[in-house]
Amino acid sequence: MLYTGIDSKDRQVQNLVVPKNLSDPYLREWVKYKGNPVINLPDGTKRDDFRDPTTGWRARNGIWRTLVASVKNNTGVAFLYRSADFVIWSYFTNLLEAEKLALLGLTRNIFAVKGMHQRMGNSGLLDCSFWHPVT
Fold first, then answer.
1. Residues forming beta bridges with residue 111, ordered by sequence position
2. Exposed e or buried b per residue across 21-58, where buried means at least 16 C-beta atoms within 10 angstroms of its C-beta
3. Is residue 24, in this structure, part of any structural domain at all?
4. DSSP 35
5. What is the model's pTM?
6. Is the model's pLDDT at 116 over the cut of 50?
């Protein structure tokens, strides 16, 4: 699972945590990945404007994806990252851009619906849902 943390330079970064015991049906204990952070603050992004990763999802091609909310150049942005192994992540594209701060701090979920992926905005600032095919 990905979560927002703070690095030694007081910047928001995305970290990985894994279940300590996969045989525990409730997954009550988690362990931080020793190689954290797995996603660093992008260039041009303020140190406290990079947070709230989505639950990772696997596209049809087997590649993991996640969105991270941010603000860049006074515009709300959802950065799309991808990974083959859920550990090594690379920037892919800016999936969404909106008015200043409109995307920052959203709780987002991605799930498969009839062969497509749907992203649901869950905020009073961005009250929308739309379809986005992921290939």
1. 118
2. eeeeeeeeeeeeeeeebbbebbeebeeebbbbbbebbe
3. no
4. T
5. 0.75
6. no
